[in-house]
Design brief:
about 40% helix, single chain, Rossmann fold, six-stranded parallel β-sheet, seven-stranded parallel β-sheet
Length: about 375
């Protein structure tokens, strides 16, 4: 790799598995023009088959298995990796990515970028002192910060003490050619035993874990189906709480009206089938799935938390509700169920916003400008 004259960007992330940040990284690598830059990915832990979504044959992926080898051995391996690959820029992401900064500098890497893509599960409101202190301690090693939302930018400035001039805010981009609305009159495509053609399907997509709070969505749906018998709920995604969520649906008496298939292959096809999309997360950076639902021409209901406030124009393309508020969520969904014109109006607006404000091309160009600026 070192014989190639194109500068190398080494991306360091916790793991390369199905996820919003990981999907954004894959899109960035695949879409950036190959003649300018090369890429490699180092995983603090490991990677899954998700790595196969990187279409560029010149991109290597490395696994460091920190939880098995220990942090000091992992840092030594990062130092050796940087010495071997000689990246022009190291781009770390989120809290665990900080581990690469000192080894990279010791190995002679000239430029380091650090990205913040969301909130730590154990620090959803950004008030814990230890994560902020770790970020502050590592800040002298960082040339440039990149954040995906203004909310995260405020956190770095006010809580961590990073100068605003060192921060670039770049929204995640969505592939508006891959995520498109369902053709008019097309069947919903769901299994017949789950949803007939005259039923309405409310859905969500995401990892089944506490921060995503699908429990609140199940509770709101259980209230709605008492009034709207033709309503169905799809919760797509895998995770440690999938079994618990299925059992909770049984407890609520809605198991036959819900579809919890785990992970599926064709997310774009699933999203365009929805009549409404819900993101009930307790906190978000910038949700790729929310953007994908908007690009798919689906009205969205999301928690008024983190970056969701920057994506959803409340009352124009969707609605916002307080995290964990079952009553408000049920009320907002009921309005969509009862009013087809409202669903259509917000669906059209959601697609328009995704295309005009959050294109994948804009995201790629802005990252490329930063990388090339440092590589001069």
């Amino acid at each position: 790799m070192t014989a190639d004259p194109r500068p190398l960007i080494l991306h360091v992330i916790h793991h390369l598995v199905i996820g919003g940040m990981e999907n954004g990284l894959v899109n960035l690598i695949n879409r950036m023009p190959q003649e300018y830059l090369r890429h490699a990915v180092a995983c603090i832990e490991d990677y899954s088959d998700f790595r196969q979504r990187i279409s560029r044959a010149d991109t290597e992926v490395f696994a460091l298995h920190r939880s098995k080898t220990g942090v000091w051995k992992m840092r030594k391996e990062l130092f050796q990796l940087c010495r071997s690959l000689q990246p022009r820029v190291v781009h770390s992401r989120n809290l665990s990515g900080l581990d690469v900064l000192a080894p990279a500098r010791l190995a002679g890497v000239r430029h380091c970028i650090h990205g913040e893509h969301g909130w730590d599960v154990s620090d959803l409101d950004g008030t814990r002192w230890r994560p902020a202190l770790l970020r502050r301690i590592h800040s002298p090693l960082v040339d440039r910060y990149v954040v995906v939302s203004k909310d995260l930018e405020r956190y770095l400035v006010r809580r961590v003490g990073i100068a605003a001039g060192r921060i670039s805010q770049i929204y995640n981009g969505v592939d508006t050619e891959r995520f498109t609305p369902r053709p008019s009159g097309a069947a919903n495509g769901f299994p017949a035993e789950f949803a007939e053609q005259d039923t309405l399907v409310i859905g969500t997509v995401g990892r089944i874990q506490p921060v995503k709070d699908q429990v609140t969505l199940l509770k709101a749906f259980a209230e709605l189906v008492q009034r709207y018998a033709r309503l169905r709920l799809a919760v797509i995604g895998d995770g440690p709480l999938l079994g618990d969520l299925r059992r909770f649906a049984e407890t609520l008496g809605i198991a036959k009206l819900t579809w919890l298939p785990g992970a599926i292959d064709n997310i774009p096809d699933a999203l365009r089938r929805f009549d409404g999309f819900v993101l009930p997360s307790l906190m978000e950076g910038i949700s790729n799935t929310l953007l994908e639902a908007m690009a798919s021409g689906v009205p969205v209901v999301a928690t008024a938390a983190g970056g969701n406030l920057e994506l959803v124009d409340d009352g124009y393309c969707g609605r916002l509700f307080p995290p964990g508020d079952v009553v408000t969520l049920a009320r907002l969904l009921a309005a969509y169920v009862a009013d087809p014109l409202l669903r259509q109006t917000h669906a059209i607006a959601a697609r328009r916003i995704a295309v005009e404000r959050f294109s994948l091309g804009t995201m790629v160009r802005r990252y490329q400008e930063i990388y090339l600026g440092l590589c001069r």
